[in-house]
Amino acid sequence: MPALSVLLSANRMAEEPLYQIECCTLEEQSVRASDGLLLQPAPLQSCAPGFAQLWLVAESLAAGDSLPDWLAPQLAEWLAAGVLVGGLEAGAAVLAACGVLGGARCAVHWRMLDEFRERFPQVEAVTQLYVQDANLATSSGGLASTDLLLGVLAQEQGQDLAALVAEDLVIERTRDGSERQRMPLRNRLGSSHPKLTQAVILMESNIEEPLTTDEIARHVCVSRRQLERIFKQYLNSVPSQYYLELRLNRARQMLLQTSKSIIQIGLSCGFSSGPHFSSAYRNCFGVTPREDRNQRRAQQTAEGSA
């Protein structure tokens, strides 16, 4: 895991090892890492007391997944004792499920935001890279976990060592937790054309009540024909088709990550009727919304029983 590299590098860069690292699991069973390596960690309950940091790492936490009964009170006890407790990847969902986040802010990956907010409405989910509040920390996953660990290292051991570790890991810039997760729109589009950027921002901001191409053209101060030429030149599409695909991708994200009804999702993404939504969805993805959701649930069930 990249975040673990921060602690390992800190031990190499410092005059003497700073961190003793122990990998534990919630239950007495082997764990397969993301690279396929099978690990045999010790049960968390049997780990020696007195550790200063606890980083919970989880690939996913589905709504039906259960957690050990002892975990929630144990986490609360560790937090009260001043242990730094962090959730990386879906580890934030584990903390939320255990009730230890309360109303605190929690960093969540932007793709999982709808699902997280639906499951844990009492938690303030934000799309920052990471959040650290006293001895409670969460990251949105990916490289943001590395940024979080570097931030913690700077607090505990000083900015000079954190800079050495970043250089050792070939990290050009350490990002602050408050920075946004998604790259700038011009980078995602592969173009910095101002009218194109303005038009797509309008589209992304008006998913539930879509604008017409003429309305978008007026807002960005170009003619409809000019706007169509810009989209064709830079995105090889027309505004109406690009907008439709934006709405359908948003609908698919909600379909697979929330329990909202298909009708609710269609209305939230600007489709006035169920048949219209279903037809457009099938044309784009090759399956109906219901078929897509059922296939996803079947896949999750199979993965959970594997």
3D architecture notes:
The protein has helices spanning about 1-15, 70-80, 90-95, 115-120, 145-155, 160-170, 185-190, 195-205, 215-220, 225-235, 240-255, 260-270, 275-285, 290-305, and strands at about 25, 30, 40, 40-45, 55-60, 85-90, 105, 125, 130-135, 135-140. The protein has about 300 residues and is an alpha/beta fold. It folds into two domains: about 1-170, Class I glutamine amidotransferase (GATase) domain (Rossmann fold); about 185-305, Homeodomain-like (Arc Repressor Mutant, subunit A, Orthogonal Bundle). The strands form four sheets. It has a four-stranded mixed beta sheet with strand order 5-6-10-9, sandwiched between helices. Strands 1-4 form a two-stranded parallel sheet. Strands 2-3 form a two-stranded antiparallel sheet. A hairpin with a 2-residue loop joins β9 (about 130-135) and β10 (about 135-140). The model has no long low-confidence stretch (mean pLDDT about 90). InterPro entries: Class_I_gatase-like (IPR029062), Homeodomain-like_sf (IPR009057), HTH_AraC (IPR018060), HTH_AraC-typ_CS (IPR018062), Tscrpt_reg_AraC-type_HTH (IPR020449). Keywords: Activator, DNA-binding, Transcription, Transcription regulation. It holds the Pfam family HTH_18. GO terms for molecular function: DNA-binding transcription factor activity; sequence-specific DNA binding. This is AraC family transcriptional regulator.
